[in-house]
Amino acid sequence: MTDTTNTPAVTTTDAGIAAPSDSHSLTVGPNGPILLQDHYVIQKMAQFNRERVPERVVHAKGGGAFGYFRTTEDISQYTKADLFQKGRETETLLRFSTVAGELGSPDTWRDPRGFALKFYTNHGNYDLVGNNTPVFFIRDPSNFSDFIHSQKRRADNQLRDHTIQWDFWTQKPESAHQVTYLMGDRGVPKSWREMNGYGSHTFLWENAAGEKHWVKYHFKTDQGDGNAYLSQADADEIAGKDGDFHRRDLWNSIKHGSAPSWTLHVQLMPMNDAAGYRFNPFDLTKIWSHQDYPLIKVGDLVLNRNPENYFAQIEQAAFEPANLVPGIGASPDKMLLGRLFSYPDTHRYRIGANYLQLPVNAPKSPVHSYNRDGAMRYSNPADPVYAPNSFGGPVADPTAELPHWQIEAGEVVREAYTLHAEDDDFGQAGTLVRDVLDDGQRERLASNITGHLNEVEDKDILAKALDYWRSVDLELGATVAKNFGQ
Questions:
Q1: CA-to-CA dists, residue 440 to 227, 228, 245, 370, angstroms
Q2: How far apart are CA 68 and CA 314, in angstroms?
Q3: What 3-state class would DSSP assign to 99?
Q4: Quick one: which of 270, 125, 245 has its CA closest to 190?
Q5: pTM of the model
Q6: Active site positions, annotated
Q7: Which residue in 178, 82, 180 sits closest to 130, CA to CA?
């Protein structure tokens, strides 16, 4: 906001030239036509016509804040990543979002919540893109656009439709684990501050000695137990009164000095355990049992600074799981491997080829790149602009190779993951219902499922959905079916 206690600054054009008026166009007489030479008015209108960049296809509605991550534990035996060395403090941006809703959609629709982190490390940006659930709906990126299309608006009437949602979910029973979370309390968290965040994917950590572990990230909220939720009735009422309910809550909490925080824990699996583990550890629809791989504390995440400009710092923020720093690598998780391409590609489309030069996306560490030119490029490399060269240009560092894994030579195929001993689509969802949820949570789950299925118009798809829940848990399926007189 402008400081009204002092003499205000003079309005200028975007080129810094003083503007003669904020209210009146240049015309031939007071009632005559506007002149084309009124560059200031034309600039204002032309710029206004171009104010919006395309909204995100997924995770369009959200908000976020800046803060820091401090590593409090010595985990150097697991990773050499600089930001995870004890005592290191790293500036961080965290963006929360819904998945399916458009930019103007209410915060309190039933939907998973995005939990996207950008760490501005000394060795470049590290981006961790996750959700408020440890799993996802699908395990292969070939179905990602299909899944999102089923959650978006119909082609004919531009309305969201529960029938097509349930048609997709029942055709893809691997969705059962995530849909159980979605229909439960985590489907509508009370606030972003009171929900947990998960990296969801499996990643690879490597220590200074070259020893490797598979890793999963768990950010546990310090504002409760991660189970604070809104009832469906309250969520619907709030959606009609304040579509920015969660965004407003985060902003006001930080503004009034109540900085939300999370404690990061990880699960670590020795690299050689993966082949014999009872579930495929790279399947995004599965979790690792905490009894098999207990949580190990890493450090604290704190959000203490609101953005100064939402468009520049949140709407243009670009997160991409391909941004990995030394000591951290990808895994054979097919969804992760697909996202390594898709995220930076969507940023180039949405914001432009030079999106990484925007202040919110630019690393704090020096950039020495041979990339050049393109629209809106701010910093261009000087000669030489090619590698290799004989004129002192930057050279690659072989020691910066990210950790990777070995695979046995085999035929190129299009096949599903190799099943492990206890792999099936409904098993972990059923365990969640029977062994993790309490009686109240199970009751609300059944109620939420019933309410969502009430809008399914196709009887065949309703029947498939009832079978889907019987497969998750017989008692839960019977309760839901009873609500439909079956």
A1: 12, 13, 25, 58
A2: 16
A3: coil
A4: 245
A5: 0.93
A6: 59, 131
A7: 178
The span from the CA of 204 to the CA of 266, in Å, is 12
DSSP at 164 = H
| Structure token pair of residue 480 | 């839901």
The beta strand positions in 199-327, using DSSP E, are 203-206, 212-221, 261-270, 296-305
Residue 255 CB partners (closer than 8 Å, separation 6+): 306
At 387-418, the pLDDT tens digits run: 888 999 899 888 888 898 888 777 878 889 88
Q: Give strand pairing partners of 116.
A: 95, 129
Q: Which residue has the tokens 């799981």?
A: 321
Residues with Cβ within 8 Å of residue 349, at least 6 apart in sequence: 54
Separation of alpha carbons 247 and 424, rounded Å: 38
Contact criterion met (CB below 8 Å) for 66 and 305 = yes
Cα 430 from Cα 143, distance rounded (Å): 24
pLDDT at 396: 87
d(CA 138, CA 285): 6
Q: What is the pLDDT of residues 154-167, one digit of tens each?
A: 999 999 999 999 99
CB contact at 8 A, 342 and 335: no
What residue type is assigned to position 143 of the chain? N
Taken as a whole, the chain contains a residue count of: 486
Domains assigned to the chain:
1-51 (4.10.91.20), 62-135+182-361 (2.40.180.10), 427-483 (1.20.1370.60)
In angstroms, the CA 15 to CA 39 distance is 11
- Name the residue type at position 107: D
